[in-house]
Amino acid sequence: MPDLTSARELAEQRAAESVSARFTRVMNASTSRFGVLTDPPLVALATGVFLLVFLGAMGKDAGPSVVRALGALVFVPIAVALVTSVALRGARREVVAWLARQPFPVENLNAVLNGLGEALEVSFARAVPDTAELNIALDKVHPDAFVTGGVEDAHTLDIRIGVVDSKRNPAATNHQRYARVRELVERVLVPLAERYPIESVRVK
C-alpha cells in the first residue's frame, strides 16, 4: 500500500519549491479580489479625494463634527490597505496548498502572481485530446479561453488564458488572471487528465 503521507509531503515540497519563497505585495494581492485595495495608486487616489473634500469643508466653515468625520475619512484608504495586506500575508501558504492538491505540476505560477502569462502549455503523457472537444470545455469557463496551438510530436497544447490587462486597474486583472488559471486547471484540466494523463501545466 503506498505511503500517502510521504506522497502528500513530496507534493507539498514540490509545490513550495515551484513558487517564490517570499511573496511580494503584488503576489499576495493577486490571490484575492480584495487585493486591489492595497494597490498604491488607488490608495493614493482615494486618499487625495478625501483630503480635498476635507480641505473644502474646512474652507467653507463646516461644523466641527463634519470636519472631524471628513478628517478621519482621509486615513481610511491607508488603514484599509494595511488591514488587507496583513490579511493576505498567508497567501503563499494557500497557493502552495492548492498546487500540492493538483494531480500534476503547475509550473511558473509566479508569472501569474506577478500579473504576467498569456497561456498554459499543457504537456500530455501520451495522446492529446481533440481540440474541438477541449474548446467546448474551455468555453464553459470563459469564451476567451481556447486552444491556440501546440506541438503534436511533443504532445503539448497551448491554451489561451484569456484575460486582457487593464491599464486603468492592473491589480484587478492580476487577480482575474490568477482566478482564471485556477478555474481552467480545476474545471477543465483535472477532469481531462483522467482520460488523457497530463505530465505538467506551465504558464507561458
Report on the architecture of this protein.
The chain is α+β, with helices and mostly antiparallel strands and 204 residues long. It has two domains: 1-101, no CATH class; 105-204, Alpha-Beta Plaits. The chain has nine helices and five strands; from the N terminus they run ααααααβαβαββαβ. It has helices at 4-18, 25-30, 40-59, 64-74, 76-87, 91-101, 109-113, 131-141, 170-193, and strands at residues 106-107, 119-124, 147-151, 156-160, 198-203. Strands 1-5-2-4-3 form a five-stranded mixed sheet. Helix 1 packs across helix 6 and helix 8 packs across helix 9. The longest helix is centred in the C-terminal third of the chain and has 24 residues, at 170-193. The radius of gyration is 22 Å and the shape is elongated. The chain starts with a helix and ends with a strand. 24% of the residues are buried. The mean pLDDT is 92.
The DSSP helix count reads 9
**What fraction strand?**
5-15%
**Element pattern in H and E:** HHHHHHEHEHEEHE
Largest sheet: 5 strands, mixed
Low-pLDDT residue intervals, each spanning 5 or more residues: none
What structural class do the secondary elements suggest? alpha+beta
- Sum up the overall morphology in one term: elongated
Helical fraction: 55-70%
Overall mean pLDDT stands at 92
Supply Rg: 22 Å
Query: What is the spatial order of strands in the main beta sheet?
Result: 1-5-2-4-3
Number of strands: 5
How far apart the termini lie comes to: 37 Å
Q: How many domains make up the 3D coordinates?
A: 2
Transmembrane segments: 42-59, 65-88
Keywords: Membrane, Transmembrane, Transmembrane helix
